[in-house]
Write a structure and sequence with these properties.
Oligomer: single chain
Number of strands: 10
Protein name: Polysaccharide deacetylase
InterPro entries: CE4, Glyco_hydro/deAcase_b/a-brl
CATH topology: TIM Barrel
Helix content: 25-40%
Strand content: 15-25%
Number of helices: 11
Order of helices and strands: EHEHEHHHEHEEEEHHEHEHH
Largest sheet: 5 strands, parallel
CATH superfamily: Glycoside hydrolase/deacetylase
Radius of gyration: 21 Å
């Protein structure tokens, strides 16, 4: 029997070595929503997901399941009772409808994660402040059906979901001081999605918390980097002022940036691509439409999975340690 210690031929100058397609992992696309408020957009996102083989992560703000007359039952760190940067549900009917969407999305395979309660900037918060807000999130959500006069409608398993099934966290304004990560670990969260990276990077684990970073991706005629999130596109395209007359133009720009970032990974290293949106139709819905076009085009491609953060963690942890980043 003859053995050969064979070394790979060097790549041609200027050309990266290509991994055989058969050995590449799946290309993951992670689309998430911050706030998860507007009930019409809950319905739209769930309907779209069913038709396009995609599962979303909803970073829920729990103030949105508190009816306005009961706002004083919530108090954020360093704020008076009844304060929230994103308001409250205007009626019990609105809150109940939202709770039903949360549960139905969970049943459909989507992920419910935490975006705190009052959507305050915690850049200067202590570990204790973060833990207080995280505790409020679970307490408010656990009792939400009862608080909105719908105890009889509370689904079996709701409290189990709130207690142990919500394991991901994104800080409002992407404010992620060191105190946040320490609080997440103590509060039972296993991953954070609050940071920003210079491009798509594999998540890393630090002190028991896996950190996903929203990537900077090239965008626009000058291909300047921008966070892959609708709000940042909104600021760049129209300085944060609604301009629906250019909605189609902004949609095309966003789609081109999303698709180029996706193709770069799909044809290359297969690092998961993350895109963040809000439950707001910025610039006439340009960025939602761009995301929907992307998902329609790519989620059915071979070796592509459009998944939640929790599913992505499972996939990455099953990969060889030198390729998963975890």
């Amino acid at each position: 029997m003859t053995f050969c210690l064979c070394l790979p031929l060097p790549a041609l100058a200027g050309q990266p070595e290509q991994q055989p397609e058969s050995l590449k992992p799946k290309q993951l696309l992670l689309v998430s929503f911050d706030g998860a408020g507007d009930n019409a957009l809950w319905q739209r996102s769930r309907d779209f997901a069913r038709a396009n083989d995609i599962r979303f992560t909803y970073f829920l703000s729990c103030a949105l399941v508190i009816e306005r007359p009961a706002a004083s039952t919530y108090k954020g760190p360093h704020h008076k009772p009844g304060r929230s940067n994103i308001g409250f549900a205007q009626t019990t009917e609105e809150a109940r409808t939202r709770l039903a969407h949360v549960w139905q999305a969970h049943e459909e395979g989507h992920e419910i994660a935490s975006h705190t309660c009052g959507h305050f900037d915690g850049a200067d918060w202590s570990v204790g402040d973060w833990k207080t807000e995280m505790k409020s999130f679970r307490a408010v959500l656990a009792d939400a059906w009862v608080a909105n006069g719908a105890a009889a409608d509370e689904p079996e398993g709701w409290r189990d979901l709130v207690k142990g099934g919500i394991r991901g966290f994104r800080a409002p304004y992407l404010s992620a001081p060191d105190s946040l990560f320490a609080a997440e670990r103590e509060a039972g969260f296993v991953y954070d999605a609050s940071t920003v990276t210079k491009g798509p990077l594999m998540p890393t684990e630090t002190d028991g918390v896996t950190r996903f970073g929203l990537p900077l991706i090239p965008e626009g005629p000058k291909q300047r980097p921008i966070i892959a999130m609708d709000y940042n596109l909104f600021i760049r395209h129209s300085a944060g002022v609604e301009n629906p007359s250019r909605s189609a133009e902004f949609e095309d720009r966003a789609y081109a940036a999303f698709r180029a970032a996706f193709d770069r990974q799909y044809e290359g290293e297969r690092i998961p691509l993350q895109i963040g949106l809000h439950f707001v139709m910025m610039n006439g819905g340009a960025y939602w439409r761009a995301m929907e076009r992307l998902a329609t085009d790519v989620c059915a491609l071979p070796d592509v999975a459009c998944v939640t953060y929790a599913e992505a963690m499972e996939d990455l942890q099953s990969r060889p340690s030198d390729s998963s980043g975890l």
